[in-house]
């Protein structure tokens, strides 16, 4: 029976909207997309996605959906935009000033980013947002505006996007009338408010990782940490030059006092920007690491404040780096650590119960073979999966067994799935008795890996069985029949057991397989 879908596709939804039919392609770009992985936060099925598309296009079709293709690519663009702004803003506040009036290329560069910041503000006003409390998407313009304006991002975006570089065009006025320097100082301070977008930058990096299906949490965590540390060090270096300039150039201009400031000594304030930045990085690094700094000694209160602030931030940053390294190492070796914890618990258990050395070695050998130095909670993982997935896992785990046991080659895929579902894995160590002669049998066994020895009633060794062999079927075919041989493991062996009830469910209905088992049972009976 074939499925005929009666639901409307994305293209059909765009065609049904008469108001914006000519903007169909644009609508499909800004409406919710099934390809955006963020939509699983509240729209898990295709039906819900299409219903949300229809709701969007029937109401506020001009609003950008937060789970749209456009928003996904726009957030990737924001990574480059915010990174560039977070680098240039402190540089502008600290090192660039009206004396760089001949640097037209920088003016154009800075003004361009200010314009892009205003465009980002406008895009935010026409982009819906996901409400985590109600688990819904808000597309109403009034709610979008209220949500943005009431947040700290709005005021910081507006103040930090004031075109400070545009004031360079009026450099002659500043040179004539020094009263405008205070306005220039306030604009410089406002530009530093862009630091709040560091949180948005990290958020966009996480979302971009989801868009590109990067699942390595260790890599994402390391990338976030490097980004945060690099930007903080960069801002601290710029503040070393920015704060004295704000205090003594824009707000409190006294030439006699300015000659004692470290940044004006030996003509350092008039040196190249590269030299200034390198010295400030060295100066801030010394404060961050708590190293005594003698070059250009500090003499004013604001310098002490900057030094203490840098030192505190530096200690937090150093602690953060150590935490990052520790968590990265722990995450990369979490499996080994959990295995060591389990092994230590087993050792402690054996010590407490005072097991003999031989038994301790056997238990250790069992755990080494079972986990292969890789620990996982298999039972907890399997309990979270569906029945069909569990069956597929069983088939994959038994693929070596299925390829080696000739009995399974005569089964259909459906019958293979049926029998694999009932197989119970067991591990036998050397000299473990799997089947004992003369006992009642209620199971047959399939040897996946290892070697076992078969002994007759007299104790004489008959043969060895290796990968792909099966035994114990006689007592299942002939009810009431006792075990005719003893089977003992020679080496550590992986064996799958099939009990009588499951044997009757899965194999007795297949005549070809039953005939083959009967012949094998008769042959073994005669041999014994």
Automatic annotation (TrEMBL):
Pfam families: cNMP_binding. Keywords: Membrane, Transmembrane, Transmembrane helix. GO terms for biological process: regulation of membrane depolarization; sodium ion transmembrane transport. GO terms for cellular component: HCN channel complex. SUPFAM superfamilies: cAMP-binding domain-like. Gene3D superfamilies: Helix hairpin bin (1.10.287.630), Jelly Rolls (2.60.120.10). The chain crosses the membrane at residues 72-88, 108-130, 151-169, 181-206, 218-237, 304-330. Residues 407-524 form the Cyclic nucleotide-binding domain. It comes from the Eukaryota. GO terms for molecular function: voltage-gated potassium channel activity. This is Cyclic nucleotide-binding domain-containing protein. It comes from Rhamnusium bicolor.
């Amino acid at each position: 029976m074939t499925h005929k879908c009666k639901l409307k596709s994305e293209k059909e939804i765009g065609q049904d909207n008469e108001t914006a039919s000519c903007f169909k392609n644009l609508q499909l770009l800004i409406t919710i997309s099934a390809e955006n992985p963020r939509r699983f936060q509240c729209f898990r099925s295709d039906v819900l996605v299409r219903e949300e598309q229809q709701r969007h296009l029937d109401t506020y079709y001009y609003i950008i959906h937060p789970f749209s293709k456009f928003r996904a690519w726009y957030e990737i663009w924001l990574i480059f935009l915010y990174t560039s702004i977070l680098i240039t803003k402190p540089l502008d506040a600290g090192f660039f000033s009206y004396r760089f009036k001949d640097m037209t290329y920088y003016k154009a560069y800075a003004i361009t980013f200010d314009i892009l910041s205003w465009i980002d503000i406008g895009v935010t006003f026409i982009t819906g947002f996901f409400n985590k409390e109600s688990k819904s998407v808000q597309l109403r313009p009034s709610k979008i505006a209220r949500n943005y304006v009431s947040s700290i991002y709005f005021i910081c975006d507006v103040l930090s996007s004031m075109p400070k570089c545009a004031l360079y065009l009026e450099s002659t006025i500043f040179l004539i009338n020094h009263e405008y320097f205070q306005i220039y100082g306030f604009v410089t301070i406002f530009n530093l408010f862009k630091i709040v977008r560091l949180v948005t930058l990290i958020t966009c990096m996480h979302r971009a990782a989801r868009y590109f299906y990067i699942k390595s949490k260790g890599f994402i965590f390391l990338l976030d940490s490097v980004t945060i540390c690099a930007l903080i060090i960069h801002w601290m270096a710029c503040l070393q030059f920015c704060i004295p300039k704000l205090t003594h150039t824009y707000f409190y201009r006294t030439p006699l006092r300015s000659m004692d400031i470290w940044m004006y000594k030996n003509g350092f304030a008039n040196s190249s920007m590269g030299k200034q930045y390198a010295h400030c990085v060295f100066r801030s690094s010394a404060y961050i690491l708590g190293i005594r700094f003698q070059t250009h000694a500090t003499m004013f209160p604001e310098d002490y404040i900057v030094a203490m602030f840098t030192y505190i931030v530096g200690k937090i940053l150093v602690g953060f780096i150590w935490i990052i390294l520790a968590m990265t190492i722990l995450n990369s070796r979490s499996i080994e650590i959990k295995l060591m914890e389990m092994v230590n618990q087993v050792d402690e258990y054996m010590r407490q119960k005072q097991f003999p050395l031989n038994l301790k070695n056997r238990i250790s050998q069992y755990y080494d073979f079972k986990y292969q130095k890789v620990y996982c909670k298999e039972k907890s993982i399997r309990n979270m999966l569906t029945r069909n997935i569990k069956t597929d896992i069983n088939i994959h785990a038994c693929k070596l067994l299925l390829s080696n046991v000739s009995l399974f080659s005569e089964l259909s895929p459906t019958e293979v799935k049926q029998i694999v579902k009932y197989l119970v894995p067991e591990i036998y160590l050397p000299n473990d008795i799997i089947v004992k002669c003369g006992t009642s049998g209620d199971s047959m066994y399939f040897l996946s890996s290892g070697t076992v020895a078969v002994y007759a009633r007299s104790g004489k060794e008959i043969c060895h069985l290796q990968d792909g062999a099966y035994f114990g079927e006689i007592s299942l075919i002939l009810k009431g029949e006792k075990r005719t041989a003893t089977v003992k493991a020679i080496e550590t062996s992986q064996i799958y057991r099939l009990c009588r009830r499951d044997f009757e469910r899965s194999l007795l209905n297949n005549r070809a397989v039953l005939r083959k088992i009967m012949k094998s049972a008769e042959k073994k009976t005669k041999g014994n």
